[in-house]
Design a protein that fits this description.
One of its GO terms (biological process) is translation. Belongs to the universal ribosomal protein uL1 family. It comes from Drosophila grimshawi. Keywords: Mitochondrion, Ribonucleoprotein, Ribosomal protein. The structure is a single chain. By secondary structure, the chain is of the alpha/beta class. Among the domains are: about 100-150 and about 250-325, Ribulose 1,5 Bisphosphate Carboxylase/Oxygenase; about 160-245, Rossmann fold, CATH 3.40.50.790. It has 11 helices and 12 strands. The strands form 3 sheets. The chain has a 7-stranded mixed β-sheet. Helix 4 runs parallel beside helix 8 (about 235-245).
């Protein structure tokens, strides 16, 4: 009886209103039960940690998310042609200008009385249909250098190094404006670390030095001269002029619309002769058209002329300078002509085989 009283502790509370007694049991059994309920309550109050998720590419995201994006290929052929000069632009077709008319319009907006930038660059935006020969295939992104007849200040540093043997070839390359010209001794300087290839943006070579140039293939990597990139050939002067004065451009597919590609390049400045600018535009479009896939339909879909700081964009007709549709007969004749042309030297044939 005494042990039971020792194990149980009671507290008698006498209430003022009455004589009722209330016993509060504070035994070890009651404490253990209360401790378990407290632990359960604490577990319920645990904060849920939110895991941070990094950037997920569009093709790996949840398929339930369906974002509607507008087609970037603009086709306004179904719209009516405006009958006068006052109309709401979104309800009618875009007006098509000649290159000369577009240049004149930009010159008026850049007059000293308006933007006051008479020598602003004239930019060309070329929209492409990158659909390949098959419905599930698309043209790869590409970078090219377009030869133009009338040079202008492009604002880029273009240092060209030329590898060749022979006094005549070396003199030809130096006369064309190459930054550095040399032969076997130049290759030794590069392998010895006395000269860095990274200081030069373009590397051009003659087929007569191709056997010795193979030693630098690891250093040059993608810049190694080859006929496809037109950095290997016998006409050094033409290649040097092309890479020093030509238009460098690149075509890139849209991230969400694989059949849409865009090219932005500068063809000159507004203070140049309008005919010279038009010829530069024509050479650029013809160079871009060489990359068209072997399928029906248009490759170049729309061409716009822009000139900053003006936001005005004027549409021109590119099919005045190139064919609108794919011509199979013309493509076949051009391939046959390339097959008939034999390499000038045995080294050129070896270079073509190495490039392939």
């Amino acid at each position: 009886m005494l042990s039971l009283l020792s194990t149980m502790r009671t507290l008698v509370v006498r209430q003022q209103a009455g004589e009722a007694l209330r016993c509060l049991h504070l035994t070890a059994v009651a404490e253990a039960a209360r401790k378990g309920t407290r632990e359960k309550a604490r577990k319920k109050k645990v904060k849920v940690e939110v895991k941070k998720v990094g950037f997920i590419p569009h093709n790996q995201r949840d398929k339930k998310i369906n974002v509607k994006r507008a087609d970037k290929h603009v086709d306004d052929s179904w719209k009516q042609v405006p009958k006068d000069d006052v109309y709401v632009g979104r309800y009618y077709r875009w007006p098509v200008y000649t290159v000369a008319e577009a240049i004149q319009c930009h010159r008026e907006t850049h007059h000293p009385s308006m933007y006051n930038v008479p020598n602003a660059p004239l930019n060309v935006e070329i929209e492409l249909n990158m659909q390949g020969e098959k419905a599930t295939r698309f043209v790869d992104n590409f970078q090219r250098m377009a030869m133009i007849p009338h040079k202008f200040h492009h604002g880029e540093e273009r240092k060209i190094i030329v590898f060749t043997k022979g006094n005549e070839e070396i003199a030809e390359a130096r006369g064309a404006g190459a930054s550095l010209v040399g032969g076997v001794e130049l290759i030794k300087d590069i392998t010895g670390g006395e000269l860095l290839l990274s200081d030069y943006q373009f590397i051009i070579a003659h087929p007569n030095i191709l056997a010795e140039l193979v030693a630098l293939r690891g250093l040059m990597k993608r810049k190694f001269p080859n006929p496809k990139s037109e950095t290997l050939g016998t006409n050094l002067a033409e290649m040097i002029v092309k890479f020093s004065n030509g238009i460098a451009y690149s075509a890139a597919k849209d991230e969400y619309q694989q059949n849409f590609g865009l090219i932005t390049a500068s063809v000159g400045t507004l203070d140049m002769d309008a005919q010279h600018l038009e010829e530069n535009v024509r050479f650029l479009l013809q160079d871009v058209n060489t990359m068209r896939p072997k399928r029906d339909g248009r490759f170049i879909t729309r061409v716009l002329l822009k000139s900053a700081p003006s936001s005005e964009q004027l549409k021109i007709d590119p099919f005045v300078y190139i064919s609108e549709l794919y011509d199979k007969s013309a493509a076949k004749s051009s391939r046959d002509a390339k097959k008939e042309v034999a390499p000038a030297e045995p080294q050129a044939a070896a270079a073509a085989a190495a490039a392939n």
